[in-house]
Structure to design on (456 residues):
């Protein structure tokens, strides 16, 4: 091969003659494999031996662009255009420069000009497709990629781009129509069957999706993506045992992935095999210790088993990874409440509020812990915040009533008690739970009795 001969020449300090085609092959080879310094050496020698070659000068433009020397590339292109004005590669490189500058419409104009000058439009269609993608013109992008696939059925990069365009526009039925026509021409293409399955999965037509994924893995028994998608589809169909089998096949075929371990664990959990589920969740976090979902799944399974200390341990790991997740802090508060760790529960609920979770549930949770600890003024402040955020709800009114009464502001207490009773009479039971002594106060009992009679 020419590049081997070239490297031998460099090692021996000899000077060999290469014809123009050989130099082009050598330079393109080094560009393709990323050996830029060798490409430059070959180009330098090539221009010394063939100083008038337009093709070598065009490769010089490409090397300038590789080094991001756009001005040098532009100047050289202008000189080449004077020598060879009808060279399609000149316009392709002009398009590349325009694209680097973000001038995608200008790049398209150059590429369309290049199309008029070439008998080999394949690469230009692909470049046009990418430029239209940059402009979010998915229909035109797709049309150009479809031309590539029509020319070469095994251009899978173009095929993926076509499906991407359909996906972005949410034209999943149209994607199925296109891909079905494609497999009529290329029936043993596992990539196409896989993509058909994906479209049916998105449309929740799981039986059709499963059929397509079955074809994909029959064509290529080592197709990891096919087994993963098949497993996900089987999960949706409630066939957890077969889903597990397919996830395990994907693990056998490739490197272990935390995703597959988690999915296997969740399938076992749905089958009620909790110990096995825990085993796979632990494999997932061993594979990827920064996978917060794995730690949370362990948290939830231990919390369901009322093993709250273990649950709290795993939850703390998830929070270390993502300490700005309000859902994790809410879970932290809930589990600490189960353990009667009230100060920690306050930390959890407070962090939820700081992170933007201003739901009624968080306000009420925090206020109730503060009431239990006797921090009535702070609880009242939280209920005021809840009122501003959520409005005059029964949950808020009754807590206002109890707190104002404890703080000897009976007029406010009465007003909010009446408001709560008018909104939701039955919920007044919360007074007995949170303020047992107050629910027996004569003024409270009298007001409640009046509303009870009115509701009978």
């Amino acid at each position: 091969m020419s590049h081997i001969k070239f490297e031998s020449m460099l090692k021996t300090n000899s000077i060999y003659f290469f014809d123009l085609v050989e130099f082009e092959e050598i330079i393109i080879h080094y560009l393709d494999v990323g050996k830029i310094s060798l490409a430059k050496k070959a180009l330098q020698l090539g221009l010394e031996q063939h100083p008038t070659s337009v093709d070598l000068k065009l490769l010089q433009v490409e090397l300038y662009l590789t080094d991001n020397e756009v001005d040098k590339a532009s100047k050289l292109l202008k000189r080449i255009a004077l020598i060879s004005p009808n060279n399609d590669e000149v316009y392709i490189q002009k398009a590349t420069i325009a694209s680097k500058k973000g001038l995608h419409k200008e790049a398209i104009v150059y590429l369309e000009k290049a199309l008029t000058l070439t008998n080999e439009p394949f690469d230009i269609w692909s470049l046009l497709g990418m430029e239209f993608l940059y402009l979010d013109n998915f229909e035109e992008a797709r049309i150009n990629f479809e031309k590539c696939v029509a020319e070469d059925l095994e251009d899978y990069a173009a095929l993926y781009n076509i499906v991407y365009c359909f996906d972005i526009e949410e034209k999943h039925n149209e994607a199925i129509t296109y891909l079905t026509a494609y497999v009529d021409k290329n029936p043993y293409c596992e990539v196409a069957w896989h993509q058909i399955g994906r479209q049916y999965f998105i449309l929740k037509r799981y039986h059709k999706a499963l059929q397509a994924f079955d074809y994909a893995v029959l064509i290529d028994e080592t197709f990891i993506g096919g087994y993963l998608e098949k497993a996900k589809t089987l999960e949706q169909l409630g066939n957890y045992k077969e889903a597990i089998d397919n996830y395990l096949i994907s693990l056998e075929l490739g490197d272990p992935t935390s995703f597959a371990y988690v999915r296997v664990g969740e399938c076992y959990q749905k089958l009620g095999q909790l110990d096995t589920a825990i085993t796979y969740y632990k494999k997932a976090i061993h594979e990827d210790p920064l996978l917060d979902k794995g730690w949370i799944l362990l948290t939830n399974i231990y919390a369901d088993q009322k093993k709250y200390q273990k649950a709290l341990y795993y939850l703390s790991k998830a929070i270390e990874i993502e300490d700005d997740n309000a859902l994790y802090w809410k879970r932290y508060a809930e589990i600490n409440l189960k353990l009667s760790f009230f100060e920690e529960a306050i930390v959890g609920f407070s962090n939820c509020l700081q992170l933007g979770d201003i739901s009624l549930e968080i306000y009420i949770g925090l206020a109730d812990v503060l009431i239990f600890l006797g921090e009535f003024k702070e609880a009242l402040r939280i209920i005021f915040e809840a009122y501003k955020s959520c409005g005059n709800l029964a949950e808020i009114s009754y807590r206002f009533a109890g707190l104002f009464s404890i703080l000897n502001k009976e007029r406010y207490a009465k007003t909010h008690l009446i408001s709560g009773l008018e909104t939701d009479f039955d919920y007044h039971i919360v007074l007995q739970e949170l303020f047992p002594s107050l629910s027996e106060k004569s003024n409270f009992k009298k007001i409640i009795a009046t509303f009870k009679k009115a509701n009978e």
Observations:
- The chain has 27 helices and no strands.
- Residues 104 and 215 are 39 Å apart (CA to CA).
